[in-house]
Amino acid sequence: MAPEIKPPLHPNPPPLVRVSGTHREMGRQIGEACRKQVQHGVENGRNLVADAYQQLELTWAGAQIQARKYLPFAQERYPQYVDELMGIAEGADVGFEDLVVINAMEAVTMDALHLTRCTSMAVNDERTADGHVLLAHNEDWVPEDEDDVFIVLAKPKSGPPFLAMTYGGLLPNIGFNAYGIAQMCDSVYPSDSRIGTPRTVVSRAVLASKTPDEAIRHMLSAQRAAGYNHMLVHESGELYSVEVSARRFAILYGDAGYIVHTNHYLSENMQQVEREPEDLVASRVRYFRALRLIKREDQHTIKTLQTIQRDHVNFSNSICNHSIDASNPLDREKTVNAMVMDLTAREMHIAWGNPCENPYHTYHLDA
């Protein structure tokens, strides 16, 4: 029986922002349309750094100095996405340096953000009732950013159209594009992090990929600062988890028609550079729970994946995360949205907030 919980309610769908043009123009359109969300996201970042001063010994001015070190790598490898950030800053009337901090927050805080409860899973046409390719992701983050969630439907002047979720001033990176490439990101905690291209910039590039090979090459971009687990799904039914650190990677393949990942490394190669794995017990519990639930169904549907997303085993550190009562500000988090994507139909179904209490709304990539 699920515990009694009172998460925030969002009966209305997240805002949809339609953008097009150059990267600078798209960024400016995002900033103008979501000025309140971007400004609030910067304010939340400032408050998080201030509240965690005892652990980080870092001021916002210091965070700006740290983030500035990562910017040249992003400008050299992906100047178009730095242009997007500049456009967002202009449109939202926030400082560009503030947005750089927000998009390099994990690096700037030296991964002291203990946000370890995202869950991703996917099933291909062999494991679905209608032969579609489906993927699901619970996005867990600080609760203050939940109100800042929005959806971007982009038609770049150069690059494929895409549909993605983001919040605050973050570059969009979780979603899918018109070439049938989908990405979900789970934070992992390598010990070999370095100054380089921030993870959010690398993952934004994946959404511009035309093939799985190209997408993986972006994930392994030279001089990356660290890495995510990138769950990569292709419309053909190919399923990958690409586990990345600053200097290593491993590719896991969903050869049984399903794949699951949380926030710890699964490959032996990557476990050698995992920082403080004993802190990731909750991630392991969620992984095995989600894996069991995925394997239990022979033929999945959108609704079966949504049921998994609502699961409360190991509450509050459950798949549907409600861990908002932690004493350490760097540990507070919850599920700020839950997505099920039908890659075959080019649809995104998203619950804004905890999916146990909030309805799903549907968006289409009408490219």
Task: Supply the CATH architecture of the domain at 114-364.
Answer: 4-Layer Sandwich
> CA-to-CA gap between the ends?
43 Å
Helix content: 25-40%
Low-confidence region ranges = none
Widest sheet: strand ordering: 1-4-5-6-7-8-9-10
Beta-strand residue fraction? 15-25%
CATH superfamily of the domain at 114-364: Penicillin V Acylase, Chain A
CATH topology type of the domain at 114-364: Penicillin V Acylase, Chain A
Overall 3D geometry? globular
How does the helix and strand content classify structurally? alpha+beta
Give an account of the 3D structure.
Helix content is 33%, strand content 23%. The chain has 367 residues and is of the alpha+beta class. An eight-stranded mixed beta sheet has the order 1-4-5-6-7-8-9-10. A six-stranded antiparallel beta sheet has the order 11-2-3-12-13-14, with helices on one face. Strand 8 and strand 9 form a beta hairpin. The radius of gyration is 19 Å and the shape is globular. The protein starts with 15 loop residues before the first strand and ends with a strand. The relative contact order is 0.17.
